[in-house]
Amino acid sequence: MLVVGGRNSSNTTRLSELCSAVCSRTYHIEQAEELDAFWFTGSYSVGITAGASTPKEQIDHVQKVLSMLLG
Which of 15, 19, 67 is nearest to 32 (CA)? Predict the structure, then answer.
């Protein structure tokens, strides 16, 4: 599970904590450049969520880079 948004955002941090409670492989990132292909080894699906104030363009960029990483 990817949680996109600021690490200083209490909303996004709480969202990341909740995701971690149900998905052991949860990664809180601010930018697509933080993605690591190793995180997704053996995964058949990846969820993406974001804090309420995360700009749509930032989420779209993460989706694009993730698609390129996963081929």
Answer: 67
